[in-house]
Amino acid sequence: MPQQLILHYALLFLAVGISFFLNLGGAPLFDLDEGAFSEATREMFVRGEFISPFVNGLPRFDKPVLIHWLQAASMSLFGVNSFAFRLPSALAASGWVLLTYMFVSRVIDRETALRAALMLGSALGIVIIGRAATADALLNLWLVAAMFGMYLYFLERKKRWILLTHAAMGLGFLTKGPVALLVPGAVGLIFFAMQRELPALMRAAFYPPGLILLIGIPLPWYILQFQAQGMAFIDGFFGTHNVERFSGSMEGHAGSLFYYLPIALLLALPFATPLLRAARELPRQIKSPLGLYLWLWFGFVLVFFSLSGTKLPHYLNYGMTAALILAALALPLLKSEKLGSRALALLPPLLFFGLLAPLPCLLPEIITRMPENDARALLIGAVDLFPTGYFTVFFLLAVTSLALMFVRSLSLGRSLLGLALAGNLALALLFLPALGAIQQGPIAHAAQIAQELPGPYVMWRVNTPSYSVHSGHVQDLREPRAGDLVFTRSKEISALPPHTVLMNERGYSLIRLNPAE
């Protein structure tokens, strides 16, 4: 193996190690998504049934089953803990980065490939999703495999790329459903049409061995799930969680038509300025097939989800691989020797670290200005939950960002990548544990108390499935009865019959109702 390749893989290993694996279990599971995915996996073992996901005894039709099977394998090896549930996502995100390096090496060169893969492996949006116990990192692994395979088929016309694309879409359909077909299908159709190559696309799309993979990978589970759950699964998964998500806002996740424009810059941090420079280069980049393909990929995701009624930031990650490859191509065009260009490029990390650093100091003032609600109750006393050195580290990162504006001897690319990895180190060791302790601490504490207590177990007027995971008990979602162990919001205590309070902490309570006389 060439020395250059060894160095590249060593740098990639370092980047994914910091970004995705460092202190992976350092925070409790976050609700709702991480808690729901993890509890659905845990209940597979409780029920002894690995086809239909359930959360607190009720069918969960949000997503297909592949992520649960991978989490189940991890849980079998490492037990019931945050690390085990997040590990499949960290591995998938690492594969995502590696595929990007291999693809860009093949179609451009290794130096650009390293830059693109390191940017992808350290950008804020990808790091967050790569550390989350959800299906999104796994879906993105299959999406990039399908998108890269389709472009390589365009270049080389080899059947192995058809098989890769179809297999990846089949695995994606088993991970999150129709979106795994929508993005590659729509982008491929537009791109091949613009290249006047539609007949080639049609031959690839209907290549029999490819179709066997595309259909044969997900279909057995869908058949078994339909046999187990009937039309409730069809209506819940395809209707509610696909059609209705696009046609209307679900769970309050709405946004304007321009919602994803600032989100793109946020997800790309600290590489927002190279992404903006890539946008300036769009007229030139789309003159090449690769540039056109990447812009169609990112542009389709941006437009489609901007038109969707339900908007969540991580949806844009389906196109951020293309955006960050384009940003990697544009990065050398930024004039690092000019103070204005360096300042503009380093301003986003300066602002990001500068906003995070004073949080412990600002929190008391924020709390005093908040109305009496659940969020305020959760934040009271949260200042003490920030780790020692939190302010110092993020303040130094902000100062370093400012200083690098004037250190012109260090390339802009290395400056941004160094800040990205140092920032991810601080996020993993300081910010995410603090956020977990603030948001999930009382829930995890109540769960720890409930582990050894007898039931019946009831979750009432609150939806925090991570409590079920950490307590090890499936919860009844019903009105409390005499003798129940009840987890609820503290504000709901007054509505309960005679009881004993076992824990009351920052807006959450664990209650034992008095037994019937």
Describe it.
This protein is mainly alpha-helical and 517 residues long. 66% of the residues lie in helices and 5% in strands. The strands form two sheets. A four-stranded mixed β-sheet has the order 3-4-6-5, covered by helices on one side. A two-stranded antiparallel ribbon has the order 1-2. Helix 19 runs antiparallel to helix 22. The longest helix has 39 residues, at 412-450. The chain is globular, with a radius of gyration of 24 Å. It starts with a helix and ends with a strand. The model has no long low-confidence stretch (mean pLDDT 93).
Mean pLDDT: 93
Q: Helix- and strand-based class?
A: mainly alpha
Integer tally of domains = 5
The count of DSSP E runs of length 2 or more, i.e. the number of strands, is 6
N-to-C series of helices and strands = HHEEHHHHHHHHHHHHHHHHHHHHHEHEEE
Helix amount? 55-70%
Shape: globular
Note the beta-strand portion.
5-15%
Describe the largest sheet.
Answer: 4 strands, mixed
Question: pLDDT under 50 segments (min length 5)?
Answer: none
Side-by-side strand order of the widest sheet:
3-4-6-5
The end-to-end distance, rounded to whole angstroms, is 77 Å
Which value, in Å, is the CA radius of gyration? Answer: 24 Å
Q: What's the number of helices? A: 24
Brief rundown of the structure:
This protein is mainly alpha-helical.
List key phrases describing it.
517 residues, 5 domains, globular, mainly alpha, two-stranded antiparallel ribbon
